[in-house]
Design a protein that fits this description.
- With about 140 residues, the protein is α+β, with helices and mostly antiparallel strands.
- The chain has a single domain, classed as Archease, Possible Chaperone, Chain: A, domain 1 (3-Layer(bab) Sandwich).
- Helix content is about 25%, strand content about 40%.
- The strands form two sheets. Strands 1, 2, 6, 7 and 8 form a five-stranded antiparallel sheet that branches.
- Strand 1 and strand 2 form a beta hairpin.
- Helix 1 runs parallel beside helix 2.
- The longest helix has 19 residues.
């Protein structure tokens, strides 16, 4: 993960980010870190939990949506924040392992509550690097 490849963008009623990656795997990992960074200080989270993930979608945009949606669900349902990812991605599927830990309100900084991923302004493209823009509903 390279924090230089994450930029936060302004949006009138939501929050958003732009990320880059040399590979789709790096792009999706950076998108996860950017999403979690709105919720808490990711660096303060332990690496005591591990989860296998497998997602199938109809296209790359849906895959990004479903990936971030799954991570938000795991945060809401199990208080999990992941910070290391071993992913294998193609245009319609993602599989791999996520490592991180539990968010503990008394111990970790609380940020913005993310309600949902949106397709609003979403962009995924490849020039020299992969580039994505995502807006999140808060």
């Amino acid at each position: 993960m390279d924090r230089d490849k994450i930029r936060y963008i302004e949006h009138p009623s939501d929050v958003g980010f732009e990320v880059e990656g040399a590979t789709l795997e790096e792009l999706f990992a950076n998108a996860a870190i950017a999403c979690y960074s709105f919720m808490t200080d990711v660096d303060a989270i332990d690496e005591s939990e591990e989860r296998a993930v497998e997602i199938r979608s109809e296209d790359l945009y849906s895959l990004m949506f479903d990936w971030l949606d799954e991570l938000i669900f795991l945060f809401e349902s199990e208080s999990l924040v992941f910070k290391r990812f071993e992913l294998k991605i193609d245009e319609t599927s993602l599989s791999g392992v996520c490592r991180g830990g539990k968010f503990e309100p008394g111990r970790h900084e609380a940020g913005i509550i993310i309600k949902a991923v949106t397709y609003n302004m979403m962009e995924i493209k490849k020039n020299e690097l992969w580039h994505a823009r995502v807006v999140l509903d808060v």
